[in-house]
Amino acid sequence: MLQTQYPSLALPRGRLFSALHGLLAGSGAPVEPEDGEARTLVIERAGWRLLFARPGDVSLLVERGVADYGCTGKDRLLEQPSDVVELLDLGVARCRLVLAVPVDHPAAHAAVNPGRQGTIRSIATKYPRLARRYLEGLRLPAEVVVMHGAVESAPALGLAEAIVDLVQTGATLKANGLVEVDTILESTARLIANPAAYRLRPPAVDEWLRALRRATEGQVHEN
Amino acid sequence: MSRFARSTDGARELLSGEAERLEALSFRISRLFASWGYRLVEPPQLDRAEVYGERAGGPRAPGLAGSADQEHLYRLLDSDGQLLALRPDLTTGVARLAAGLLGDTQVPDCTQAGCADAGAPFAPAADLPLRLRYEGDVFRRSASGSGHARSQRQAGVEIIGSAEPEADAEIIALAYAAARAAGLGEPRLVIGHAGLIHGVIAGLDCADGKQTGSTSRRWLRDALQRRDLVALERAAGPELAGLFAGGPYRPADSAAILGKLADHCRGTEAAAAVDNLLTLERLLAAYGVPQPYLDLALLRDLDYYTGMVFEVLSPAVPSAIAGGGRYDGLLARFGRPLPATGFALSLCTVAPYAVAAQRSAERPRRNLVAWLDRTRDVARGLSLAAALRAEGEIVETMAGARDLSSAVATAAARAVDRLLLVEGGGYREVRLGRGASPASRAAAQAAGLGTGLGIH
Question: What is the pTM of this model?
Answer without folding.
Answer: 0.81
